[in-house]
Amino acid sequence: MSQSSKLALIKEMLDSAESNVRSAKQVLSELLGGADKRDYSKAAQEIDTSQEEYGEDNIVEGVFNGEGMVDKGRKDYPVPANYASKSKLIPGDVLKLTVKPNGTFLYKQIGPTERKHIIGTLTYEDGQYKVIADSKAYKVLLASITYYKAEIGDRITLIVPEIEDSEWGAIENVLPAEEDPDIEIE
Q1: Cα dihedral 23→26→154→90 (10° resolution)
Q2: Which domain holds residue 18?
């Protein structure tokens, strides 16, 4: 094995170890009660709406929780992953769901939560893609991974809630790979 191959292998092993340590810290924090998971049904109860009816359409408003929408009555509604990914939805965003008479669901983001951008590294753990950033592992939707053609180890710009702690983030973009001048490409 050449010296550059060994250096690349060592770098990969260190990145993996760092990812595992961050994940272990996050799990430990959750077990010790440090990570407070937000109840999105409570946030949905704060939405000022009156279950409006528009003709034959039924309108429901709720809060995105990372995978779906939760309404005031704690009912879950599935949000298509491609819509959530394309719209860069993050937990805390307020959505309006229009249920058509034929059963079609139409979602619209009506109240984005405050956002911040962070940069992290894409990993895959426990059957879930995650971005490790700021000593935390954020889950991301598979639809975003496939859309951006992201690969494990890529540097990712991630959108997360500004104020609330969240398990989920939305991929903003995949950053171009930085070349390491110490590693020769063969």
Answers
A1: 140
A2: 3-35+114-174
CB 132 within 8 A of CB 180: no
Angstrom distance (rounded) from CA 4 to CA 80: 44
More confident residue, 110 or 45: 110
Choosing from 111, 138, 158, the residue where a domain stops is 111
Is 113 within 8 Å of 138 (Cβ atoms)? no
Summarised one tens digit per residue, pLDDT across range 9-31 is 777 777 667 666 666 665 665 56
Query: pTM of this prediction?
Result: 0.68
Position 56 scores a pLDDT of 64
> 89: Cβ–Cβ under 8 A, 6 or more apart, which residues?
64, 79, 83, 95, 109, 170
Distances (CA, A) of 28 to 18, 23, 126, 132: 15, 9, 16, 16
